[in-house]
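Following the same procedure, backbone shapes were mapped to integers, as reproduced here:
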Amino acid sequence: MYKLNKKKGFNLIEVICSVTLFSILFMITLTIGVKVLNIKKYNKEINNYTLVMEEIKNRMIYNAAYNEVEQLNLEHKYYISKEDINLDKLRQKDLIDIFIESKPFQEPYLVISIEEGYVLKLNLKLYAKVNNNINIMECEFYKGKYKR
């Protein structure tokens, strides 16, 4: 009878298949890791811009007088530049001094629109470049001329 020669161990094809499979799994894991880091960066930037919008809105509602907001409109100060869209700088400066007349050329910048009346309708729009896309964040609120 003939005896078959059985080889024990790995063939070259088995080694190549296992290295290929390991490489594919490694690339998938690496891609997921990079995407997670990008999402964290995106969320951090959006959260920061949200806090800035909230700070400006609260300062306009609670700390600014009706006539100060009207003064912004009369002086045509509708913009906040990139340098001032920072929580620390916002808290250091007076609200009227933050706004400027000319539209900034670089994102991020904030635009306020004011509809006059007995109650002012204020609309804040923050134009920010996040992940090479321009996002527009919007906030609308009212400021009235009334006594408590």
In short: Strands lie at 79-80, 109-115, 119-130, 133-144. DSSP finds four helices and four strands in the chain. Helices lie at 12-63, 66-74, 87-92, 95-98.
